[in-house]
Amino acid sequence: MSAPRRYPVPAARVRIEDRIEQSRFIATLDAARSVDDAKSVLESVRSDFPDATHHCFAWVIGPPGSTANTAAGDDGEPSGTAGRPMLKVLLNSGVGDVVVVVTRYFGGVKLGKGGLVRAYSGAVQHALREMTTREHVDLVDVQVVVPYAAVDAAQRVLQAQGARVIAQAFSTNVALLVRIPVDREREIASALADATNGAARIER
Question: Are residues 125 and 142 in the same domain?
Fold first, then answer.
């Protein structure tokens, strides 16, 4: 696959507020690994602010800049003044698996299309500045088959390489079900072979 295996994603929910011409713009930014995650964030924001005038949204599911799984909505604002400008900011943010909802309480002063674009884009930019990130790592489950005599050595290697044993079975050999970073599979296989004199093997 050509998609990045590691990329920054939001580490925690962020909520900020901007006031423009008596209107309140409240941006809620969070991580979303799936469309269902993103919809859940949108629904939670609607629940937090049930009396708001608009809940505009945008999300990017996948690596930073990926357009394969995106969405945007204006929620009653003039077409193209909220969701799409918000999505553009997300696509250029360098962050993946991200959803943002900008809630507006109308203050009585119309901002015009240009003013709305600036307000919604600015709210997302403000939230991104306040955001902290963590690293997303694609994981894969593999089976490590190893003789009894080499189990301890294999487990030391797996722990050192950031792998996690999630199940094990005992027969002629020991079979470990292991979750590993997908971009380190070859490195881990090589380290296991070195530690067990070639006795351990990885199977998908």
Answer: no
Q: CA-to-CA distance for 164 and 175, rounded, in angstroms?
A: 14
1 found inside a domain: no
Please state, in angstroms and rounded to a whole number, the distance separating the CA atoms of residues 20 and 24: 7
Closest Cα to residue 91, out of 114, 71, 116?
Answer: 71
* Whether 92 contacts 60, CB under 8 Å: no
Distance CA 23, CA 27 (A): 13
Answer whether 7's CB lies under 8 Å from 76's CB. Answer: no
Same domain, 96 and 12: yes
Report DSSP state, residue 149: G
Q: Please say whether the dihedral angle defined by the alpha carbons of residues 155, 158, 160 and 166, taken in this order, is positive or negative.
A: negative
In this predicted model, what pLDDT tens digit does every residue of 107-126 receive, in sequence order?
Answer: 888 999 999 999 999 999 99
Residues 71, 168, single domain; the answer is: no
Q: What is the mean pLDDT of the chain?
A: 93
